[in-house]
Structure formats: C-alpha cells, structure tokens
Write a structure and sequence with these properties.
The chain is of the alpha+beta class and about 130 residues long. It has one domain. It has five helices and four strands. Strands 1-3-2-4 form a four-stranded antiparallel beta sheet, sandwiched between helices. α1 packs across α2.
C-alpha cells in the first residue's frame, strides 16, 4: 500500500535531508481518505502541504490532491509561486491547515489501510 505510515516512513528515509516527497491522491467530496493519508504522512514528516485546483480544495468536486512533505522546512514561497502559474486555478493548503484537517483522523497503516474511493460517474464529479 502506497499511502500508509510505513510507506511514507521508508520514502522519507531515502530522501536527502532537504528532499521533498510528492504524492498524488484522489478523493471524494468528504475527504475521508485524504485526511487519513495526511495523518499518516504527518506521523513521519515534519511538514506537509496540499496542492489542488480551487474547486477540489473547496470540496466542490472529486479530484486530485498533491501532497508535498519533507523532514525540513518546505519551500513555501517557491511552491506558492509555482501554483500561481498553473493553467488551472489552483491553491495550496499550508502546514497549519493540513495539520488541523488531519488531527482527528486515524493514520492509514499497513494493518489498517485507508481505501481510495472509486471515481464517481462522469456526470456527478462536481457539486454546485
């Protein structure tokens, strides 16, 4: 399983001290899967941000979240600059927001993995 505490511990172990881990996670509007994955990442990383299009961050549609984590300080200014230049309107949840979202979640582990929800039918991806 590629979204567990054990996986992220191993992935971060092989990175340089200033290295960054990036992971793409899809989730439904309720974000139950995402928060479990984030809780697992934060068990082993010192900081984490989430990047996504605005409609996904606002919970209006099923979509992709990009998790960026590391053991040292994250290059927040550089990440923000790059997100602002994307073709689609996108944003970033800063470490404090990510921590607050995942605080009450049970981390995804090898013994208790979170299951990624299936993609919805094509006509129901967006909530208005």
């Amino acid at each position: 399983e590629l979204t567990t505490v054990e996986f992220y511990r191993e992935a971060l172990r092989v990175l340089r001290p200033d290295g960054l881990l990036a992971a793409n996670v899809t989730d439904a509007l309720d974000r139950r899967y995402l928060v479990r994955v984030l809780a697992g990442v934060l068990e082993v990383a010192s900081a984490c941000v989430v990047l996504a299009t605005h409609d996904v961050l606002k919970g209006r549609r099923f979509g992709n979240y990009v998790i960026v984590a590391g053991q040292g300080p994250l290059p927040l200014r550089e990440l923000s600059r790059r997100v602002a230049k994307t073709a689609a309107p996108a944003g970033m949840w800063l470490p404090a927001r990510v921590s607050a979202l995942s605080r009450s979640a049970r981390p995804s582990t090898d013994a208790d993995p979170a299951r990624c929800p299936p993609a919805p039918d094509p006509g129901s991806w967006r909530v208005r």
